[in-house]
Amino acid sequence: MKPLEQARFDKLYQSYLNELFLQGMQPKTIDSYSRALRQVAEFFDTCPDQLSAEQLKYYFIYIATYKSWSSVKIARCAIQFCYKYLLNRPWVWVNIVKPPKQQAIQDVLSIAEVQAIINATRQLRYQVYYLTTYSLGLRLSESLNLTIADIDKSLMQVHLHNTKSKKDRFVPLPQTTLLALRRYWKTHRHPKLLFPGGKPPHLCQGKTMIMDKGGVQKTIKIVAKECGISKNVHVHTLRHSIATHMLESGCNLRSIQEFLGHADPKTTAIYTRMTNETAQNSALILNDIVDSISINWQEN
Q: Distance (Å, rounded) from C-alpha 180 to C-alpha 51?
């Protein structure tokens, strides 16, 4: 862009970041939306507020052809947000993008495969992380950000904060997982985090570091391959797997939905609540599943 155009875009971009924050967007959404806005500006070498409907159509076709429909969806939402909250213009081109609905079936690991991956992992921190993520049915960031205060050993449950749904939830804590977390915590004794990152004192520019996302993602793929597992394995596969194992073991769908923190698809944002009976049953089933896994712990 020419200097004046670049300056105008820089001002728009900063306002865009501020508005995303003020609208309560999650950090991951802010990152993806802001990246999408930068990309469309780079593609046309101009500030996005000057783009016509025809230019946007061409851009969406380009993304759908050379990237993916999910990228189209993100770009559309990012630009639409810009028009609505920054430019105060009506968005009249929403219907030009209708990504085809895809319901891909996710790969699921058997209990034996989960056990094999944990045992083949050669670092204790990753072993404990994978067991924790699997046994608590957590998303990648939910387990990475666990703190000591989240663990309630008297009630044998874990308190999850600031989840994807922006609602806290409690999940049962299997005894095996509690013992594993204690085993790993004794190796670093961080005053707050269960999975600190970097070397002691686990700080970077004064900020507390958590374990690297890329490391846990890369490692589980390498280990799965070494175990001869040809499935597309990533950290989120552990979450899919525990839900499947609970269902197969007789846990009802309402309990699993609450356990994972999913919204009811029929009511979108309404969450089902477990009764005391279903909560107790799901905790017993969860303990039985996790207790069946025999782990050879690595020395740290």
A: 55
Catalytic residue among 129, 130, 134, 139: 139
Prediction pTM value: 0.69
pLDDT in tens, 149-206: 999 999 999 999 877 766 788 999 999 999 999 999 999 999 999 999 988 878 787 7
Contact 51, 80 (CB under 8 A): no
**Which residues on adjacent β-strands are paired with residue 21?**
none
**How remote is the C-alpha of 220 from its chain's centroid?**
15
Residues 6+ positions from 110 with CB-CB distance below 8 Å: 241
Give me the catalytic one of 76, 125, 239, 245: 239
Q: Is 38 in the active site?
A: no
111-291 under CATH 3.40.50.720, yes or no: no
- As separate numbers, helices (DSSP H) first and strands (DSSP E) second, the chain gives 12, 5
- Rounded to the nearest integer, the mean pLDDT of the chain is 85
Type of residue at 210: I
User: Is 245 considered catalytic here?
Assistant: no
pLDDT digits (tens, 9 = 90+) for 15-47: 999 999 998 888 889 999 999 999 999 999 999
What is the pLDDT confidence band of residue 99, given thresholds at 50, 70 and 90? Answer: low
- Catalytic residue list contains 164: yes
Can 239 be counted among the known catalytic residues? yes
Fold of 3-96: DNA polymerase; domain 1 (1.10.150)
Residues of the chain with CATH 1.10.443.10: 111-291
> Is 89 one of the annotated active-site residues of the chain?
no
Angstrom distance (rounded) from CA 49 to CA 43: 13
- Indicate the angle between helix axes 276-291 and 253-260, nearest 10 degrees: 80
**How many other CB atoms are there within 10 angstroms of residue 101's CB atom?**
6
189 catalytic per annotation: no
Q: Which of 11, 164, 213, 225 is catalytic?
A: 164
